[in-house]
Write a structure and sequence with these properties.
Length: about 375
């Protein structure tokens, strides 16, 4: 039987999937920039590849071109996001591709940044480069959902993480919650942290559980998110362990609508960054104002690891884009603490809707990932 040669569309998909895999390596490390992957292919052979580097520079295209060197001439570039066309801290990637002699560019999706937004593709076309876009666009948008949300709506993309029993309880009636899920599920939770720019919890969780919110996985020591404590009507205790781990490599922020200057100064002396925000009518932080403030700081992907009240506040504010729901095969019953506090919903038509993206078995536990229905 003769060997079948893949068609050009099949090859395009294969190389774009490879570029998307590369792009995911930058998640949690490149904010406020998007996480982009680039693969350079000539005569069916990969001659260069790259992804956005920590801190957002150099860009994926620049890394791939440097690795390919002269082999980039005549190659096809598979890029998960439209190459930039504006001068920032680095020259435009569209110009770099032209100068390298790339003959074709396949982009998964256009860049919503108003400084780009089609201009990168037009610059390539004007230089005689064959251009197409839209290949695996949905997957590319999922990878950069945070960047897209920040650019188009002025807030980070938010994933709420919940670890519960089958009946949705996160603690017993006495408050015991460690550990509902097993070791493999907890490791997956740490991986989610590593893929986000920041992890946010509430001051109530700090009082109840004293979490550190660090990534504690082998090989992930250098992939620590910003850890954010959102202070509500409960003051964040100065004795919490999270403050003692604040450093340039493992930053901790306190966000509060009523920050006491003296307490703020003490925490800042320990390496904590204190940010003020707006209070809602009930004295708790106003979720939209908090997210706007965090977007102004450059954050694009936020993992919410909070108690039931704060999780409900984010849902009520229509600010949860995805759910990562870990379920253990146990039951606690109605007297246990629910994962989500009351939302005050009377009609099923008013209930927030989510679509299941994937289910992942984790030994006896399971993870269900949902995406909000826009």
């Amino acid at each position: 039987m003769s060997k079948t040669t893949p068609s050009e569309p099949d090859l395009d998909r294969r190389f774009m999937r490879h570029a998307l895999t590369l792009a995911r390596r930058g998640l949690g490390q490149v904010w406020p920039n998007p996480a982009v992957g680039c693969v350079l292919v000539r005569d069916g052979v990969v001659v260069g590849e790259g992804w956005t580097q920590p801190g957002g520079r150099p860009h994926a295209e620049r890394v791939a071109l440097d690795r390919a060197a002269a082999a980039a001439r005549g190659a096809t570039a598979y890029v998960t996001l439209e190459p930039c066309s504006h001068h920032g801290k680095t020259p435009p990637c569209a110009d770099a591709l032209v100068e390298a002699g790339v003959s074709r560019v396949v982009a998964a999706c256009t860049d919503p940044d108003p400084r780009v937004n089609g201009r990168g593709l037009e610059r390539l076309r004007a230089a005689g480069v064959a251009v197409s876009h839209g290949l695996l666009e949905a997957e590319a948008r999922e990878v950069n959902a945070g960047f897209f949300r920040r650019v188009t709506q002025g807030r980070p993309w938010v994933m709420a993480k919940i670890a519960s029993t089958l009946d949705g309880r996160i603690a017993t009636r006495s408050g015991e919650s460690r550990w509902i899920t097993g070791e493999r599920a907890r490791a997956e939770g740490h991986r989610l942290r590593a893929e986000c720019d920041a992890v946010l919890t509430g001051s109530g969780t700090l009082v109840a559980d004293d979490p550190l919110l660090t990534v504690r996985l082998p090989g992930f020591e250098n992939r620590q998110p910003v850890r954010i404590v959102l202070e509500g009507r409960t003051a964040a205790p100065e004795t919490a362990g999270i403050w003692d781990t604040a450093s340039a490599d493992t930053p901790v922020w306190l966000v509060s609508p009523h920050l006491d200057p003296a307490r703020g100064a003490r925490l800042e002396a320990r390496g904590v960054r204190c940010l003020e925000t707006v209070a809602a009518s009930d004295g708790r932080p106003a979720v939209p104002a908090v997210l706007k403030r965090l977007a102004e700081e450059g954050l694009t992907r936020l993992l919410l690891e909070a108690g039931s009240i704060l999780t409900a506040a984010f849902i009520a504010a229509d600010a949860v884009d995805a759910l990562a729901w870990f379920r253990a095969p146990t039951l606690i019953g109605g007297d246990g603490l629910p994962g989500i506090a009351p939302l005050g919903i009377d009609l099923l038509a008013d209930a927030p809707g989510f679509s299941l993206l994937r289910r992942i078995p984790l030994d006896s536990d399971g993870l269900e990932v949902y995406q909000r229905r826009d």
